[in-house]
Design brief:
Elements: H1 3-7, H2 12-49, H3 54-82, H4 91-115, H5 121-146, H6 149-153, H7 159-184, H8 189-194, H9 200-231, H10 245-250, H11 260-280, H12 283-289, H13 296-325, H14 328-347, H15 351-378, H16 386-419, H17 422-442
Length: 451
């Protein structure tokens, strides 16, 4: 009997508690990543290596580790499909990955102290690159197998509700991460213009902020993973299937003709998330370069608070609503809202307009997040290889980070060098993202196996 068959015999009221328990991990995971990629690492790049080349140095640090995670996700997910453990198939990976994740965070905390000295730029970039690589590998080793938990345990008619809880925990973690990062780490336009970020007093304060940030991140990750491991039970795998490397390697083939719906879900997810990450990695720099905000990190938190508040509206109701009307209407809504966001950024480059754009983005982001996971589980190939398939799905969410940071960094750096005005680069970047959002939204129509 499969996990899903067992789940259908479980009272519905019981599953609300189960949804919360199985999705708590995503709170910690998003608290972890959003704060790092959107606020803290971009700020570290400016303070450690200078303001002039920040758009070029940031991709150098982020891209290698993120690219490695593309391969870690399907590999770890597929291995977990075979695991015969008393803890189940997914939890052992979460435990092992989190241990090394926490060690990498502690490494960032300690390295940050020495990088504020006279460390050569090249050496400092390599240190940051290696730590980020370790962080990506360990974290995705933990979260990729866990992405299959809904397909493992939740009946198909309830997956929209379960995905809604995933979206809610994702947003709450994002809110918490932004608020914490913006409160702890301080960097703004006056610091850049005056060169204050180069003074010993500023750097000493910044070193303390960075140390506190990474240690708290490590504590949050540990606490929520422990809660998840203790509250979510798995049935140990009982199978006669023998592991063979050749058979294992063949499982990674994505066959568009055989499973077209799954292919289109992966492709449209790649387009949508590439658009999001092309912007997200450089929002702090937008607030510094274009809006000239005196406390860019703090103002970015305000912006994030607005878009996350509006996203809760569509997230809370989107998952269960999609169980009744289908997933596609929520994807269409998200595409329209996020496209409007980009147009506002292009036409009205003021702080007030940015806050309005944040409200529209939140509505779209919440709608997409609430059904993203459910849409994938609806069209999984008819096998029991959920870990592998959801690992590929997770990789389709990580590849956009590589493309996005490379695309955004390349456009911003090149156009600033050509025109001497950073505003042009941001306008071009937002225009490209409009195209990505439009394609990602329209092509969801190709998914025939989901409403």
């Amino acid at each position: 009997m499969t996990h899903a068959e067992v789940a259908t015999r479980t009272p519905f009221g019981h599953w609300t508690k189960r949804y919360i328990a199985m999705n708590l991990f995503w709170f910690a995971n998003n608290f972890h990543w959003i704060a790092l990629i959107s606020v803290v690492i971009p700020a570290q790049v400016v303070v450690y290596f200078g303001n002039d080349n920040k758009s070029a140095y940031l991709p150098l640090i982020i891209v290698p580790g993120t690219a490695a995670a593309i391969f870690v996700n399907p590999f770890a997910g597929a291995i977990s499909d075979y695991l015969k453990s008393k803890l189940g198939r997914r939890r052992p990976f979460m435990i092992a990955g989190t241990i090394f994740n926490v060690l990498a965070l502690v490494g960032f905390a300690l390295a940050g102290q020495s990088l504020l000295t006279s460390t050569p730029t090249g050496t400092g970039i390599v240190v940051m690159l290696l730590l980020f690589l370790a962080l990506q590998i360990s974290n995705n080793f933990a979260n990729s197998p866990w992405s299959a938990i809904i397909a493992d345990q939740v009946p198909a008619p309830q997956r929209g509700s379960a995905s809604g809880w995933y979206g809610l925990m994702t947003l709450l973690g994002t809110i918490g991460g932004f608020l914490f990062a913006g409160t702890v780490v301080h960097l703004g336009d006056p610091d850049i213009k005056s060169g204050n970020y180069l003074t010993s007093g500023f750097r000493a304060t910044f070193a303390h902020e960075i140390l506190l940030f990474y240690l708290v991140l490590a504590a949050v990750q540990t606490i929520f993973v422990v809660i998840t491991v203790l509250t979510v039970q798995e049935t140990p795998l009982i199978t006669q299937e023998t592991f063979h490397w050749r058979t294992f390697a063949q499982r990674f083939r994505v066959e568009p003709r055989k499973h077209p719906d799954f292919f289109w879900v992966l492709f449209t997810r790649l387009l949508m998330l590439t658009g999001i990450w092309s912007i997200n990695n450089f929002l702090l720099y937008y607030f510094i370069d274009v809006l000239k905000r005196p406390n860019a990190a703090g103002d970015l938190v305000v912006f994030s608070g607005i878009y996350l508040s509006t996203s809760i509206i569509t997230t809370l109701f989107g998952g269960s609503f999609s169980d009744r009307v289908g997933r596609k209407p929520l994807v269409y809504l998200s595409g329209v809202m996020m496209t409007v966001t980009c147009l506002i950024f292009i036409v009205f480059q003021t702080y007030a307009a940015a806050l309005l754009a944040g409200a529209f983005f939140g509505l779209g982001f919440g709608a997409y997040t609430s059904v993203d996971w459910a849409l994938a589980t609806d069209v999984l190939p008819p096998t029991d290889q959920y870990g592998k398939d959801m690992g590929i799905w997770s990789a389709a969410g990580i590849l956009p980070q590589v493309i996005g940071v490379g695309l955004g960094g390349g456009i911003l750096y090149a156009l600033k060098a050509i025109f001497g005005n950073p505003t042009i680069g941001y306008s071009v970047l937002f225009g490209i993202v409009v195209v990505l959002f439009s394609m990602g939204t329209l092509l969801v129509r190709q998914v025939k196996g989901a409403r």
